Each structure stands twice: as C-alpha cells, then as structure tokens.
Amino acid sequence: MGLWRVFYADWQMECCGTPFSVGDEVTWPLLLDEGGETLGGGWSGALSAITATPEYVRDDGAEIRVLRADDGLVVALPGDPDDNAADTRRGRGRGRGTGRGRGRARGTGSGSGGDGTGPGPGRRVAWSGLLTVERHGARWPGTTGTVRTIHLVHQDFAETGPGSRTREPVPASRSSEAVDRSPRWFGEGRAGVLADLYVPGPRT
User: Fold this and answer.
1) In a 3-state reduction of DSSP, which class is residue 77?
2) Element (H or E) spanning 25, and its range?
3) Assign residue 197 a region: left if phi > 0, alpha if psi is -120 to 50, beta otherwise?
4) Helix, strand or coil for residue 38?
C-alpha cells in the first residue's frame, strides 16, 4: 500500500478527463515527469521516489517503459534511456506541458546500462519526479486507487518578453487550495489539481 501525490493538469481534465471527488476510486494512466519540470518546476514537496525493475509494454508496435511498484502503482517513464535526443515538450498554451524528455535512473542493483544513460535489462532502478496523469498518446496500464485529498493549484503566468504573446509559468507564484471535488473547467489562474492517491496494493 502507498500514498502517492499526483498532478492532474487542467488541459488534461478539460480535454478528456472525468471530474472526481475525495473518496472516489479512480484509475489513471500515470507518467513520471523526471525532476518535476511541469509548470516550470518548484514541486519539491510533491515529488515521488519509485524503485522497481523497468518493464516494457507494447502499444501499436511501440515499446513503453513502465515501473510497477510493489503496492500496485504503475507509471510510464519518459523518453528512452538509449535516446540522447533533447527533451521534447508538449502542452497547450501559456507554457504548460508535460516533461517528455529522457529521465535519469540510478541503478540499485548491478548498475546502469553500458552507455551510462539508463539501467540494463532486469535491473532495479530508482527514479524520482512528479507523477502526472497522461491521457494522450500511447497507452499503458493505469493505477487504481482512492482519492484521499484534492488541492486546486493556482499558478500565475508572465510574458516571456515585452509585448510577447507567449507566457510562461511563474513557479514562485504557485499556491494551492483544498477542495472536495476537481472542477471540469478551470479558467484563468488555475493550473490543475494535486491529489493524494491511496493505492492499496496490486489487484489480483
């Protein structure tokens, strides 16, 4: 069993999410944003550490790396450990996005892969980052748990330069407000919700 903090971005909910309340059982596909760079970072109190052996799940011919924690948490890892390409980001306006770049793994068994970018086959590794709900792109098994708390995340955005139409998040402006239910629509200044998800253990 475990209690995990999960960020559910406003655009993910508004596009194709289902609002939820404290006490609801939910099943979410989770992605690990290594380092917690979502909305400009600054998530030190919300980061999770996961130690597991990476597995591979196939979706329409693509291989997705996932970690399956002992309590039943399943989370996809961003990028590919053998891909040295620069991070890619995707999101919707105002600088929002989910980190999609290559994560960093620390081997907890016999070490990492030969090129130093990730674990070798069958090795337990430790990853840390922000757990996020990901409802776009490839598919992998979801994590089922009970929502214990919900906090509405408020976030300011600032112009990237004078007269710019592009805005980026201001991490220092972030605050949260306890609520009983996630909204379906968020509006200006609301970036999503941060939920505590209780995972009782693997389903049999």
Assistant:
1) coil
2) strand 25-28
3) beta
4) helix
Whether 71 shows a pLDDT value over 60: the answer reads yes
Identify the residue whose tokens are 């070490």.
Answer: 111
Q: How many residues does the chain have?
A: 204
| Cα–Cα distance measured from residue 142 to residue 4, given in angstroms and rounded to the nearest whole number | 14
Give Dmax (Cα) for the chain. Answer: 56
pLDDT range class, residue 44, cuts 50, 70, 90: confident
Token digits of residue 53: 């052996």
User: Contact, 149 vs 21, CB < 8 A?
Assistant: no
Q: And the tokens for 83? A: 């891909």
Displacement of CA 20 from its chain's centroid (Å): 18
Total-model pTM: 0.77
CB 195 within 8 A of CB 180: no
- State the Cα–Cα distance between residues 35 and 199, nearest whole angstrom: 22
CB atoms within 10 A of CB 16: 9
